[in-house]
Amino acid sequence: MSISTTTHLNFRGTARQALDFYGTVFGGDVVATTYGDVGMPKELPGADKVVFGQVTTADGFRLMAYDVPGHDDTDPAAIAGTTTRENGATITDRTFFQSVRGETLAEVAAYWEALSDGADVIEPLAASPWSPGFGMLTDRFGVTWVLDVQPAHAG
Fold this sequence. Notes:
By secondary structure, the chain is of the alpha+beta class.
């Protein structure tokens, strides 16, 4: 038996844009099915919104997303809360962060550079006591990402 877990992000009108953005960041294939594609009359408001969306990459990255029915709020802070750093501590009212861990600083830095376009940087990508590279940002869609480099294991 095997099991996997995939983050499923809930947006309020921006799922397609977010999926396309993440597809360019991670180099994956994007699939987006609208409410209209699954039977909602296409003339109704919201028929063009995403009911099922997914980004997948050949190396195993997968992220799912959809638009919450009846909502069209493009203000990420109003949807997802806030995250800040104060006195060395992370202060947040979000229920989760999306974590991406890479093997090298160069790999993580490339993802960081792409995700940081239009983002609010909470903690710049830099060496930390636990990792050769760690950073935190909230992207333009309101998703907070933690990016870090896998620390070397003593052996």
